[in-house]
Fold:
Amino acid sequence: MNNFTFYSPTFFSFGKDTENETGAYIKRFGGHKVLIHYGGGSVVRSGLLDRVKASLDKEGIAYVLLGGVQPNPRSGLVYEGIELCKKEDIDFILAVGGGSSIDSAKAIAAGVVYDGDFWDFYCGKPIENALPIGTILTISAAGSEGSPDSVITYEEGMYKRGASGDAIRPKFSILNPALTQTLPAYQTACGITDIMAHLYERYLTNTKEVEVTDRLLEALLLTMVHEGPRVIVNPNDYEARANIMWAGMVAHNNACGVGRSQDWNSHNIEHELSALYDCAHGAGLAVTMPAVFTYVMEHNVMRFAQVAVRVWGCQMDFEHPEVTAKAGIEALRNFLISIGMPKNFDELGAKEEDIPKLVDVLCNGNGRTGTISGFVELNEEDCTNIYRLML
Ligand code: NZQ
Ligand code: ZN
Structure:
């Protein structure tokens, strides 16, 4: 196991009606004037925003609203949010929604206290300072409620890139599984896929002897395989939604990723798809993961065979471990299809003729120099071959 530091100071309030305590938590974490940041309207339609406002009113906390975050959040609204926070003397940002609203809130929080352009953080500068952030999560997926990460799309060039820093870990996150019951089945499935991707990206490691994190990742993958279909069949299954919601947080606050190298090639390859086609991140991952895994499998066949046996119940073929490894990748693919995810470029709305463009931005855009690295280093030819496997 590698040396590591792990700092995860987010306070979690989990369960039914917990959003009614939002005002009290903002007070506890030092907020006086709040920017409430949200998406395209689901929190308005569900009545959640009104309950949150009532909770702030009860505590005498002032607030300003900024809605309109799009899935795959854009830089334009971040700049607007930074200006609004400065003008209104905001000292706390509350994101109400999914990963997109939370990531946009994180970008604003870092940008407000920085003299330069907030995009510097998405070009590699670590985030060391930010306004405090709280979140009320409405979709189990990105894990941003407990992560030090934010992903934003820069409109000029449509670069989708991530930034990181413990300063943008939320001070508190309110996780009420009942709030996810209004999700369309497709979005629920996208979330399940993203959570599984966060587990696989950590599972694909080059570090030896990482039994504890391997086993934690397997337990979470098994949970998703068990609970995922239950919520697709019955969207109001609170208990299944609760298990998925906590799995989504644990999958990505890095408790299961410490002490080991991680992959993230599937995420990088997918981000170009959601940047170009504006598809849901989880849907893009459903098409990307089986292709990437098939392409890199030979790098460590036993790693893929291990997850095939321990999670997917495949029979170990000791003479031909690649058969077991392949069966595990196929089982993942079939599972994702069974919950309603797309299986190829066509179903995702992606186009074969765009592959050169996707590869160029992926490998050369925004400061990269011809390769992306993770479990395996991939050059332009590799990435072209991987996108072709998705046709
Ligand atoms: O915008 P509204 O109207 O709220 O609708 C949203 C949106 O259309 C809807 N939705 C959310 N909760 C709902 C609901 N509809 C009905 N009922 C509810 N309870 O669902 C749609 C998707 O929302 P979004 O916030 O985009 O989903 P998600 O949480 O999957 O976030 C995706 C973004 O997170 C990034 C992705 O790249 C993508 O941009 N990621 C962020 C990460 C991080 N910060 O650590 C890691 C991830 O790997 C990921 O890359
Ligand atoms: Zn993801």
Residues 308 and 327 are 7 Å apart (CA to CA). The first strand starts at residue 11 and ends at 14. Residues 39-43, 71-73, 97-101, 103, 138-139, 141-144, 147, 149-151, 179-180, 182-183, 187, 191, 194, 252, 267, 281-282 surround 5,6-dihydroxy-NADP (ligand 1) (CB under 6 Å). Residues 185-389 form a domain with the Dehydroquinate synthase-like, alpha domain fold (CATH 1.20.1090.10).
